[in-house]
């Protein structure tokens, strides 16, 4: 029973991470085209999935505790691979290993696309800063201007002419 709970939670986590990957791909396109409204909506959707992943992680922890039943001799397993020792069915063990592998692969691909999105956002910010610098007037160079304490010098011309 506990093995099926772990399998169900791993399947849920895999689905949620795949959904997060799909959103990250959409986000890449949105960033490329600079659509802020769409980016805000995608980020809201992304946050909903992140909350669901956090809840699924808590479910996974509960399923692991249920599996170990607080065995004082072996302790509570902390990773999915440690849970395999507690599961008798070979088919359940294989399913858990397969789901774990798929989840790790999905997370790795998700990290890559998130890094790409981060780089695209940084480039967009550099472009915005460059455009702002081009359109903003040059500021006075304060280091080379007279201070309030200095007296103004009289302007002399090269020719002393009296007319």
UniProtKB/TrEMBL annotation:
What Gene Ontology terms for biological process does this UniProt record contain? bacterial-type flagellum assembly
What the entry lists under Pfam families is as follows:
FlgN
Q: Does the keyword Membrane apply?
A: no
Q: State the source organism's domain of life.
A: Bacteria
Keyword Methyltransferase assigned to the entry: answer is no
Sorted UniProt keywords: Bacterial flagellum biogenesis, Cell projection, Cilium, Flagellum
Q: What is this protein called?
A: Flagellar protein FlgN
This chain's source organism reads: Cytobacillus dafuensis
Taxonomic lineage per UniProt? Bacteria, Bacillati, Bacillota, Bacilli, Bacillales
């Amino acid at each position: 029973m506990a093995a099926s709970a772990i399998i169900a939670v791993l399947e849920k986590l895999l689905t949620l991470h795949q959904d997060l990957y799909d959103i990250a791909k959409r986000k890449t396109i949105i960033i490329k085209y600079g659509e802020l409204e769409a980016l805000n909506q995608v980020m809201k959707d992304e946050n909903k999935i992140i909350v669901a992943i956090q809840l699924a992680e808590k479910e996974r922890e509960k399923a692991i505790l249920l599996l170990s039943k607080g065995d004082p001799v072996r302790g509570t397993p902390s990773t999915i691979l440690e849970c395999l020792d507690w599961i008798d069915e070979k088919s359940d063990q294989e399913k858990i290993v397969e789901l774990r592998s798929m989840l790790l692969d999905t997370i790795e691909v998700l990290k890559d696309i998130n890094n790409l999105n981060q780089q695209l956002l940084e480039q967009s910010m550099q472009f915005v800063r460059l455009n702002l610098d081009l359109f903003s007037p040059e500021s006075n160079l304060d280091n080379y201007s007279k201070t309030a304490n200095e007296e103004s010098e009289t302007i002399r011309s090269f020719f002393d002419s009296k007319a």
